[in-house]
Write a structure and sequence with these properties.
By secondary structure, the protein is an all-alpha fold. The protein has helices at residues 2-23, 68-75, 80-102, 107-128, 137-162, 177-199. Helix 3 (80-102) packs antiparallel against helix 6 and helix 4 (107-128) runs antiparallel to helix 5.
């Protein structure tokens, strides 16, 4: 009886093993080792080559101050940008008046340039009077230049008109060519002094 039970148990174990083996994979597994490659760190190649003197200050391009788009968008976007643009429009007018005096241009050209500058400074006054910009040194100096430009232009016009009538009178001394030239020289010095101040406005 015991022997029969042992045979039955072995038969059951054998049947169970056969069932398990029949449920698994039978056959030859593919060799994937020959297709497998270990990962190697990639070597990068720079897209751009270093340029000699790239950070040399002498080779850097100047800031495009005369471009309103740069001032408004790149440099700043606040209210001071408008002031910078206004100053940049006045700078060439100051330079033109300096050239006019240094080159001894005639009365008509001088008066035209002086009047243009006075008009631009008047517009600056209306735009920024009572605002923070009116305390800038560039603003206050320009107000003085505007008054001087207007008075010198009037003096030269009156001198050309009245000098012949007052040539021999003390009242005509103010219209004498020597006095007008002296006033022009003073005005030229004032223009030359304010120019660097205007160029530094940012």
């Amino acid at each position: 009886m015991t022997a029969q039970l042992g045979v039955i148990a072995k038969t059951a174990d054998s049947t169970k093993t056969n069932e398990i083996e029949s449920k698994g994979y039978t056959g030859t597994l593919p060799d994937i080792l020959d297709k497998y490659q270990t990962t190697k760190p990639a070597k990068g190649t720079p897209i751009f080559e270093a340029e000699e003197g790239f950070d040399d200050p002498d080779k850097l391009k100047p800031v495009p101050r005369d471009n309103p788009a740069f001032v408004d968008i790149i440099l700043k976007g606040d209210k001071t940008s408008n002031y910078v643009n206004d100053i940049n429009r006045i700078i060439p007018q100051v330079e033109a008046l300096i050239d006019s005096i240094e080159n001894g241009e005639d009365l008509q050209l001088f008066v035209a340039k002086a009047t243009t500058l006075d008009f631009s400074i008047g517009a600056l006054r209306k735009r920024y009077e009572g605002k923070p910009e009116c305390y800038f040194i560039s603003y206050t100096k320009l107000m003085e230049i505007g008054l001087r430009a207007k008075s010198i232009a009037e003096l030269r016009k009156e001198g050309a008109e009245y000098n012949r009538y007052f040539a021999y009178q003390s009242a005509g001394a103010i219209y004498a060519p020597d006095n007008i030239n002296k006033e022009l020289q003073y005005f030229l010095e004032e223009l030359q002094k304010i120019l660097p101040i205007l160029r530094e406005v940012d």
